[in-house]
């Protein structure tokens, strides 16, 4: 019964999202193209502001349960940090010391940034108390290598957010998200998504202890009807 209800919700959200996307594209495409051709900066600023507001919902909601793992003063590595807006919100709210790490300089904050090659982290063993990997693994061609490196540099936990590719609807939307995001940010990767169970098997093979593993609807489910996974792993 629960599976039938879950599938019905998936179909309902998928119909709404597709309709919304079609209308959005029709109405905004001419302005978007003109903006990219003549002055893309305002569009990126608007995107970053919207993105930052959504990040507050992800990390500030008590039910998300990160307070137990992000204690004040801990050293945190944000792996695949992007603009750094997520890390800045985390640093301010949880009072932790955050270092950014990405394959290029997308940083829009004053937080320290380390560039790496996408596989090997430029840090000694056990350099950070916690490593955060938020919706990043599906954008890389080397997720297993990154997970090994995260395990190497983390003392306590690795916190991972990922999209849950569970059925035909989520398969379609994750594919669309991956391709559009990579195009927008000029990222070259295959964008591989997995289900919660597939991720759990990968973590187990790498020797992680799974402390938390759950799925839930995202705050933007009406436009992106894909459940998110939260994994908290211990070395």
Can you give me a brief rundown of this structure?
The chain is an alpha/beta fold. The protein has 6 helices and 7 strands; from the N terminus they run ααβαβββαβααββ.
Please provide a written account of the structure.
The N and C termini lie far apart (37 Å). A seven-stranded mixed β-sheet has the order 3-2-1-4-5-7-6, with helices on both faces. The protein has a single domain (50-234), classed as Rossmann fold (3-Layer(aba) Sandwich), CATH 3.40.50.150. The radius of gyration is 18 Å and the shape is globular. It is of the alpha/beta class and 235 residues long. The protein is 45% helix and 20% strand. Helix 4 (143-153) links the parallel strand 4 and strand 5. Helix 2 (41-60) runs parallel beside helix 3. The protein has helices spanning 2-38, 41-60, 85-94, 143-153, 168-185, 196-205; strands at residues 75-79, 97-102, 113-115, 128-134, 154-163, 209-216, 228-234.
Structural class: alpha/beta
CATH hierarchy, class: Alpha Beta
What would CATH call the homologous superfamily?
Vaccinia Virus protein VP39
Give the low-pLDDT segments.
none
Number of strands: 7
Based on the structure given, which CATH architecture is correct? 3-Layer(aba) Sandwich
- State which percent range the strand residues make up: 15-25%
Please write the string of helix (H) and strand (E) elements: HHEHEEEHEHHEE
First-last Cα distance = 37 Å
Mean pLDDT: 81
* Overall tally of domains: 1
State Rg.
Answer: 18 Å
Identify the strand order in the major beta sheet: 3-2-1-4-5-7-6
Helicity, in percent?
Answer: 40-55%
CATH topology label: Rossmann fold
The tally of helices reads: 6
């Amino acid at each position: 019964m629960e599976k039938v209800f879950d599938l019905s919700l998936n179909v309902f959200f998928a119909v709404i999202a597709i309709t919304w996307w079609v209308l959005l594209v029709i109405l905004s495409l001419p302005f978007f193209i003109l903006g990219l051709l003549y002055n893309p900066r305002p569009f990126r600023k608007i995107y970053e502001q919207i993105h930052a507001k959504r990040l507050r919902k992800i990390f500030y909601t008590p039910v998300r349960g990160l307070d137990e793992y992000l204690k004040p003063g801990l050293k945190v590595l944000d792996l695949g940090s992007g603009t750094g807006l997520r890390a800045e919100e985390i640093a301010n709210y949880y009072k932790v010391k955050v270092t950014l790490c990405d394959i290029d300089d997308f940083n829009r904050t004053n937080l320290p940034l380390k560039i790496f090659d996408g596989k090997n982290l430029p840090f000694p063993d056990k350099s950070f108390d916690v490593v955060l990997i938020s919706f990043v693994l599906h954008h890389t061609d080397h997720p297993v290598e990154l997970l090994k490196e995260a395990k190497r540099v983390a003392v306590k936990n690795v916190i991972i957010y990922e999209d849950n590719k569970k059925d035909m609807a989520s398969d379609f939307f994750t594919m669309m998200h991956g391709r559009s995001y990579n195009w927008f940010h000029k990222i070259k990767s295959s964008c591989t998504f997995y289900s919660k169970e597939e991720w759990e098997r990968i973590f187990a093979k790498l020797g992680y202890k799974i402390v938390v593993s759950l799925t839930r609807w995202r705050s933007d489910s009406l436009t992106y009807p894909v459940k998110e996974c939260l994994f908290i792993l211990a070395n």
